[in-house]
Amino acid sequence: MSMRAHVGDQLIVESPTSGATKRDGEIVGLHHDDGTPPYDVRWSDTDQITLVFPGPDAHIHPIGHGAEGQREATGQRASATTHRSTRSLSEAVVMSLVEDATAAPSMHNAQPWRFQYSRRRRVFHLRADLRGSLPHFDPELRALHIACGAALMNLRVAVAHEGWEAQTRPLPDPADPMLLASVTLTRPLGDEADPAALYPAVRTRHTSRYPFAETEIPPSVRTALVDAADREQVSLSFASDWHLRSVVDLALEGEARNLTDAGVAADLARFTRATDDARPATEGVPEYAFGPRRRVGNAPMRDFAGGKSIPGRPTADFETFPHLVLLSTSRNRPVDWLRTGQAVERLLLRATLEGLSASFVTQALEWQDLRWPLRDPMSGMAYVQMVLRLGYGPPGTQTPRRPVHDVLDIEP
Ligand SMILES: Cc1cc2nc3c(=O)[nH]c(=O)nc-3n(C[C@H](O)[C@H](O)[C@H](O)COP(=O)(O)O)c2cc1C
C-alpha cells in the first residue's frame, strides 16, 4: 500500500539495522491531495523544513491515534518519559503551558507579561507588558524583568514536563528590548529530570506572609538552593551575623520610607484588593494574602495595608532571626535581571519541594541608596538583585491571575 499522510503526522526515519529512530519530523505540507509523497517535513533536530521523498527506511506515525492523540484531544498532560511526539502542540496544551508560566510571582501580582506561540515554528515569545509596570517601585523595569524571568523558568519547567527539549534565548532581538525571551521546542526530551522534576511545585508555590519556625535549614537543603541559583548563573548567599542584622535594618528602613511615600502609596492602591473591591480580581494582592500584622520579630514584611488597619486582621509574632538569602549577579543589565528571575523561581520551586515556604524582602532594593549597602563586602558579591525570606511555616495562599486568553496569542 502506498504511503499516505496528513499534515501534522510524524515522519520517522529508522536505522535499517538497529531500528532506532535516526531522524524525525513533522509533516507540515502535502503536495498531493491524496496524501502521497513528497512531503514538506520540519525536522525536529534542525527545525528546518525540507522537501522529502521518504525511502523504505521511513514510516508515518499518524496523529489522532493511540494514547498521544487522545491526550492531545483531552488536553491532558503527559510525563516527560511517556511523551515522544514531535507534532505541534494542541491549543489546550499551549494554554496549559502558559497557565503554568503565569503561576510565577510578580511584584504586587502585576503580571507584566504576554506570550505569543507560533505553531508553525513551535516557538514561544515572552514579551514585557508595560500595563503591569510599577512606575514608582520599579522605574528601571528591573522587577518587571525578574517577574518575567520567573515566568520564563516556569515555562521551561512546564515544557520539559510536557516532554520537550527547548532552546531558550534571552533578549533574542536587540532592536526589540521588550521581547524578553524566546523558547523554541526543538525535539522530544530524553529522560532528563532537570528541570521537569520541579513541575509539581509550579502551582503549589505561593508567597507566604506568615511567621516561620526558627528551625535551622539543613546544610543539604542550603546546598540544593545554592545550586538552583547557580544553574541560572546567579550567586546565592545566606545572610548571617552582622550582615543579617544589616539586611534586616535596611529592609525596615525601606519599608518605613515606603509608608510615607505618595508614589508608593499610589502603586499600592492600584495593586491591592480589599474584600469588597469592585475591580476585577485578576491582578494585585488580595487582602486575604496580606498575612498577619507583625507584633514582634525581625522578619521584614511588606505591609500591603499601607499602615491602615483592616478589621479582623490578626497580629502574630515573627522570627527573631529570619533566614534571608541574597541573590546577586556580577553585572546589572536586563539580561542579569532575567537570569535573576529564573534563579528566583528555580530556587522557590526547589524550596517548595523541600517543604520550605518563602516571602520576598525587596523593600531595600527599591531605594538606590539602600541597595548598595545590602551586599556583604566580604563575599565579593556585586549587585544584589533579590532578597528572599525562607523558613518552615504555612505555605501561603493562592492569588488570582489574568485568564490565559488575556495574555496569550496563538499564531498559525
Ligand atoms: C520582583 C518582586 C518583588 C516582590 N516584592 C515583594 C515584597 O517586597 N513583599 C512581598 O510580600 N511580596 C513581594 N513579592 C511577591 C508578590 O507580591 C507575589 O508574587 C504576588 O502577589 C503573587 O503571589 P504569589 O507569589 O503567592 O503567587 C515580590 C515579587 C517579585 C517578583
TrEMBL record:
What are the DUF1918 domain coordinates in residue numbering?
3-60
Q: Which residues does UniProt assign to the signal peptide?
A: none
- Comp. bias intervals (Polar residues): 76-86
The UniProt entry, under Gene3D superfamilies, shows:
Domain of unknown function DUF1918 (2.30.30.440), NADH Oxidase (3.40.109.10)
According to the record, the residues making up region (Disordered) are 65-86
Q: Which GO terms describe its molecular function?
A: oxidoreductase activity
Recorded hits in SUPFAM superfamilies, A to Z, give: Cell growth inhibitor/plasmid maintenance toxic component (SSF50118), FMN-dependent nitroreductase-like (SSF55469)
Q: What is this protein called?
A: DUF1918 domain-containing protein
Q: Which organism was this protein described from?
A: Streptomyces rapamycinicus (strain ATCC 29253 / DSM 41530 / NRRL 5491 / AYB-994) (Streptomyces hygroscopicus (strain ATCC 29253))
